[in-house]
Amino acid sequence: MHAPARPLGRPITIAPAREAAFTILQRVMNSAAHSDDLLHAPAVDALSAADRNLTTALVLGVLRWQIALDAAIRPLLQRPEADLHPAALLALRLGMFQLRHMDRIPAHAAISESVELARTHDAPHAAGMVNAVLRRMTREPAAPRATLAAETPAEIAHPRWLLQRWRKHFGGKVARALAAYDQAEPPAHGLFAEDTALPTIDDGSRLVAELAAAAHPAPQRILDACAAPGGKTAVLAIRHPNADIVAVDVSEKRLARMRSRMDVEPSTARVRTVLADMSLHPNRTSDVVGGEADREALAGSFDLILCDAPCSGTGTLARNPEIRHRLQERDLSRQAERQAAILRNALTRLAPGGRLVYSTCSLEPEENEAVIQTALGSGIRLLPAADVLANLPGLSDTAHASLQDALTAEGSVRTVPGQQPCDGFYAAILER
Ligand SMILES: C[S@@+](CC[C@H](N)C(=O)[O-])C[C@H]1O[C@@H](n2cnc3c(N)ncnc32)[C@H](O)[C@@H]1O
User: Whole-model pTM?
Assistant: First the structure.
């Protein structure tokens, strides 16, 4: 189809950041790609610093606000229930996001470049509609829908089912603060003072890693059971410089990336990486892909195990905003089954008297408390985390107070974004 003739006037050039943001959002929409990976790909690295920042702000902003943007766009359409061409919808979201959330972008740039994006990305027939909707938006900003009037914009930007379960588990006030946290860049250092000896690591991840490192006073052998990309392995290696450390992951690609980073750091070069599926029992010879040397590295028992299980990631929506568009409530039970299998098999490798820290970046009880319940008994008990937490290195005084509120009824730790100044993590300490 030919693009309709543009009215005479200056040709419209799409700014590199808007073009890059559009392309990344298209890939996130059409594949399982992660925005964070795409934002660090060579195509974005090649942009100027200002364009990189704008690309990031546009991509993360649209993904964070997408549900609320769509709710504002629909009533402005001539036929609100009509299917929109994906490129037209994306152009509308980008334009609407800039008009609603970016003070410094002139409305004419947001509108005209969105129209041009639709026109040049396979939806020339929708260019007029994109123009009309965005112009209408600037004239008559959408009022909140009557049924949603009691909700904040941040709450509207979350899937209903997720918000409802947070309200049920944490109460309306905490759920509201949690939703607000998800809509902005997470704080750089809310719990810990920066430690230049450590790799770049967000505070929630560091909390889990420091807790794991402190869970055993002097481990000789440490197993990091779900290790890649390796941020927590690095903290373990630095806190226990004399321990033998084996870091396992089932993803060859993630493990290779981790290995190349670890090799250049003196503190982590000694970490042994092993490609294996930790959801399988150690007797299964197929659980180690790397061969005899890897099997030997994994053999025997470990004094300290970190089991940082793959999870839904609902504690990290500020950092990984697309999770909310992909996750379905029914996925939680599938996650929990895999987590329970990984934990069960990791525990078979725990030495008597050894400690295992199970962690996720999920806020959902099915992936946390319920998984721990499956592992208790038969010589495995849950230890209270309070004492370990009280002695973690680098925590500020306000962080100590805030983390007291993060202790669960069973004595484990759950940070809730908005209550603690970090992403949401769960960590439980088990002992054999
Ligand atoms: C939450 S991420 C780990 C993050 C890591 N601990 C860190 O701090 O950088 C979970 C990891 O578990 C890995 N994984 C998933 N299933 C696994 C399995 N069955 N066995 C081992 N690793 C697995 C994933 O590839 C992913 O790298």
Answer: 0.93
308 annotated as a binding-site residue: yes
Ligand 1, atom 2, lies closest to the CA of 310
Name the one residue in this structure whose structure tokens are 């960590």. 427
Q: Is residue 204 marked as binding?
A: no
Residue 326 lies in a domain: yes
Residue-wise pLDDT tens digits, 56-72:
999 999 999 999 999 99
For 82, other C-beta atoms within 10 Å of its C-beta total 9
| Burial (CB count <10 Å: 0-12, 13-18, 19+), residue 132 | middle
In ligand 1, which atom is closest to the CA atom of 249? 22
Q: Which residues pair with 244 in a beta bridge?
A: 221
CA distance 307 to 279: 11
Name the residue among 81, 76, 116, 124 with its Cα closest to residue 96: 76
Q: Which atom of ligand 1 is least distant from the CA of 306?
A: 6
Q: DSSP alpha helices (H): ranges in 121-251?
A: 127-139, 153-156, 160-170, 172-181, 203-214, 231-239
Q: Which domain holds residue 226?
A: 203-431
Task: Quote the CA–CA distance of 419 and 416 in Å, as a whole number.
Answer: 5
Does ligand 1 lie within 6 Å of residue 226's CB atom?
yes
For the question of an ipTM over 0.95, the answer is yes
State whether 247 and 368 are in the same domain: yes
SS3 content of the chain, % helix, strand, coil (to 5): 50, 10, 40
**Is the same domain home to 289 and 424?**
yes
Would you call the peptide bond into 159 cis, given omega within 30 degrees of 0 as the criterion? no
* CATH of residue 255: 3.40.50.150
Q: Per-residue pLDDT tens for 371-421?
A: 999 999 989 999 999 999 998 999 988 899 899 999 999 999 999 999 999
Task: Let me know if residue 5 belongs to a domain.
Answer: no
**Residue 109 sits in the same domain as residue 221:** no
Q: Is 14 exposed, middle or buried (0-12, 13-18, 19+ CB in 10 A)?
A: middle
